[in-house]
Amino acid sequence: MIFLMLTIACTSVSTSEQQENSLERISSTEKISTIDDFISIGFKVYKEYDVSELVRAESAWHGMWKDQTDRIDFEVRVYQTHFDAVEYGVPFADNVVGKDAVVKKSESIWPEGLKDRIKLASEGRNWGGVAGQKIVPKYLDYFIYGNVIILCEGLEPAESSLHCTNILKELVNE
After folding, report:
1. Segments forming the whole domain that contains residue 107
2. Cβ–Cβ under 8 Å, residues 171 and 42
3. In a 3-state reduction of DSSP, which class is residue 43?
4. Which residues, at least 6 apart from 15, have a Cβ–Cβ distance to it below 8 Å?
5. DSSP assigned state of 81
6. How many domains, the chain?
7. What is the pLDDT of residues 104-159, one digit of tens each?
8. How buried is 101 (Cβ within 10 angstroms: 0-12 exposed, 13-18 middle, 19+ buried)?
């Protein structure tokens, strides 16, 4: 009986800690973010993309942010409003994020920067391919914070979500 109570108590603590440590996947906020907000928290911009075919987007950026000791790739897409990010940005994000994301330019609804959204998976992940490697999506999750969509790198969706949460916590606390 005591063992059962301790198990439930420990599970409750770790569940509440997880909830404290994560943000909502889609967060509406009054704050209008820009790439400068990300740069101020240490985001290093590698390149800016041409967004002329990314419906309602104002800008899109590929870069890196250091999460503790790991250097993580992100793509930051800036829209004028939260509504635009959700209404117009989600279909474009869904197209290139997740384990089943598009990795071929001919199938992408916005191919700009596609080569930055893919990587080679090693033989150890059992994906086969030429010389034991296969092209796979780099970003397995994304979050929307106000007017911004952030695509986050990770080996698994949970890891990508954690990276999204960590950069957003830093942005929110800025």
Report:
1. 2-173
2. no
3. coil
4. none
5. S
6. 1
7. 999 999 999 999 999 988 755 544 445 668 899 999 999 999 999 999 999 999 99
8. buried
